[in-house]
Design brief:
40% of the residues lie in helices and 14% in strands. By secondary structure, it is an alpha/beta fold. The longest helix has 32 residues, at 366-397. 42% of the residues are buried.
């Protein structure tokens, strides 16, 4: 998830930070804030923040310079891996940026802190349409970061037909040149839309039908991917791949052979990624300062112009180049948005079914899935046996 553009340096020159100097030249014109010894830990999607490359603003460095709070920044590639990391207790973060349905799940499971909006006055710039959304109806736990739609990247040299549906991802003539999302909600979502089902169905049979469709697709795929899509599409190794509209900035602008289309026939996913503070954070006030900083219209505009995703702030949108604002990939017409659907947190029973079906799709069938389950159970029993043996041995030595 990233954005590279020749306009970045020119655009930054037009931005004015708090003290009135150009953002990119701020270190030369303003006295840097001395470090306070404070630090925040941020966990975000890969390539999802302006980092100073290609003439862009280095957002994290600018936050540190202004506040004295250092940013320890790391990345994840799927909502599910983010969730697993937090549940396992393997790390502690102050700011995370999950997608809508994962925000909802974390709220329901008591994994997020309520935000103190007194510390986030720039929330005033978030447009009303992005407040109190279904994943956080009381707007207590999250602040929108970006939004966008899912579409299809294609290589114009080899895919010359008009694309108006998800059906093309099942075309046998493109076997071995098709990529697919390597996460269950996005992959199943495409199959569900192709079948005319809701992303958020609780009908067991509908999920099974979607799984059957994904199993039929699997022999045609080159591989399941996330950010690997960039190398695969840019090199011409793959010709078709569903992905997020914001990444069109990289693929479409970096290669004249790559196009992007949002299927209008069956509809698509409208997603919102939001900033949250997880339970167990180390520096809540620092985290809220960071969220507030990212909501500043000038910072948000510089950030969005680089990563290519759509901003939930009209004030930031007004600072973006016209060619970005007028591009239907990033800001599609209302009729396209109206034919989209947002993921919501699924009931536990449905979520468990989804996990089991995804294992079947990835591994080839129920038999393989059962083999995996039995193997994991065997490792668990072995681990328990080792622990029991060590305790018994220690008692004997005493």
């Amino acid at each position: 998830m990233r954005r590279k553009t020749k306009l970045a340096a020119l655009f930054l020159a037009a931005l004015l930070p708090y003290a009135g100097a150009p953002v990119f030249a701020a270190e030369e014109t303003e006295e840097a804030v001395p470090l306070t010894g404070e630090k925040i830990y941020v966990y975000n999607w890969g390539e999802y923040i302006a980092d100073g490359t290609d003439g862009s603003l280095d957002v994290n460095a600018e936050f540190t310079r202004r506040t004295g709070i250092e940013v320890d920044y790391s990345t994840f590639d799927t909502n599910e891996s983010l969730y697993s990391k937090l549940v396992s207790g393997g790390a502690s973060y102050d700011v995370i940026i999950p997608s809508d349905y994962m925000v909802s799940r974390m709220i329901n499971e008591g994994m997020l802190e309520k935000l103190n909006f007194d510390n986030i006055p720039n929330f005033q710039y978030i447009d009303e349409e992005y407040r109190n959304m279904g994943y956080d109806p009381t707007n207590e736990y999250s602040v929108p970061y970006t939004w966008g739609l899912v579409g299809i990247f294609y290589n114009k040299q080899y895919v010359t037909e008009e694309i108006d549906s998800w059906d093309i991802l099942w075309e046998e003539k493109y076997a071995g040149k098709i990529l697919m999302f390597d996460n269950p909600r996005d992959a199943f979502g495409i199959a569900q839309k192709r079948l005319g089902f809701s992303f958020n169905s609780t009908d067991e049979d509908e999920w099974i039908q979607a799984a059957v469709l994904l199993k039929e697709q699997k022999p045609l795929l080159q591989m399941y991917v996330m950010d690997q899509i960039f190398d695969k599409m840019e090199s011409g190794e793959a010709w078709l791949a569903p992905y997020y509209a914001g990444d069109a900035a990289v693929l479409v602008e970096s290669s004249e052979n790559i196009g992007f289309v949002i299927p209008t026939e069956q509809g698509t996913n409208f997603f919102v990624d939001a900033m949250c503070i997880p339970k167990g954070c180390r520096n809540k006030s620092g985290a809220e300062a960071y969220i507030n900083f990212l909501c500043d219209p000038e910072i948000a505009a510089a950030n969005m112009e680089y990563i290519g995703y759509s901003t939930p702030e009209s004030a930031a949108k007004e600072l973006l180049p016209e060619e970005v604002v007028n591009n239907p990939i990033y800001y599609p017409p209302e009729e396209v948005i109206a034919n989209s659907e947002v993921f919501v947190d699924l009931p536990q029973e449905t979520a468990l079914q989804l996990d089991a079906l995804w294992a079947e799709v990835k591994m080839g069938g129920p038999g393989d899935s059962m083999t995996l389950i039995l193997t994991l159970a065997g490792f668990f029993l072995l681990y328990v046996a080792v622990v029991v043996y060590k305790k018994w041995k220690r008692k004997r030595e005493l």
